[in-house]
Specification:
The protein is about 35% helix and about 35% strand. With about 170 residues, the chain is of the alpha+beta class. It has one domain: Gcn5-related N-acetyltransferase (GNAT) (Aminopeptidase, 3-Layer(aba) Sandwich), CATH 3.40.630.30. A 7-stranded mixed beta sheet has the order 1-2-3-4-5-7-6, sandwiched between helices. The longest helix is centred in the first third of the chain and has 16 residues. The relative contact order is 0.17.
Length: about 170
């Protein structure tokens, strides 16, 4: 019987190419048809390998879900950017490659983000997702998030509603 290793760890500069691929695949899968094609394509092109290499050294913490040496997904987290909300921590992004979705890796990655923010002294956290992203909304509700805030996000010439989920 073969054992597969699954690890959530801090991203290294050498992970940049794999994170870039995970980003591209997950965003195409998640936002294709939601975000206008041109805006989505521009966003993906801006975040290539070099961008992710710099992100591993940036102010936000970047974690990867590593499955047997393959970066299956990533999360970025840090201090809450929405000053109107009392939660101190924020998960800015949490994405998995499509073939790794639905098997518990999202829960694992989310749990590690929560533990890390708590260990850094953050009381509570917020995560934002597009209202029309049913998969994201379902995921955050199943993780115990309460939708208490909303806002708008501009994508080219289109504005989409986003929902803020919070945890105490």
């Amino acid at each position: 019987m073969k054992t597969v290793s699954i690890d959530v760890r801090r991203a290294e500069p050498t992970d940049a190419r794999a994170i870039s691929l995970a980003h591209r695949l997950s965003w195409q899968h998640t936002y294709g048809g939601l975000i206008p094609h041109k805006a989505l394509t521009q966003m993906l092109e801006r975040r290539g390998e070099d961008w992710w290499r710099k992100a591993t050294r940036g102010p936000a913490t970047l974690l990867v879900a590593d499955v047997a040496g393959t970066v299956a997904g990533y999360a970025t987290l840090g201090l809450n950017r929405a000053r109107a909300l009392p939660q101190e921590g924020e998960i800015y992004e949490l994405y998995l490659r499509p073939e790794y979705q639905g098997i518990g890796l999202g829960r694992l990655l989310f749990g590690e983000c929560r533990r890390l923010l708590k260990s850094l002294g953050c009381n509570g956290l917020v995560v934002w997702c597009l209202e029309d992203s049913e998969q994201a909304e379902r995921f955050f509700r199943h993780q115990g998030g309460v939708d208490i805030a909303e806002g708008m996000e501009d994508f080219g010439d289109r504005s989409l509603r986003k929902i803020g989920y919070v945890w105490a």
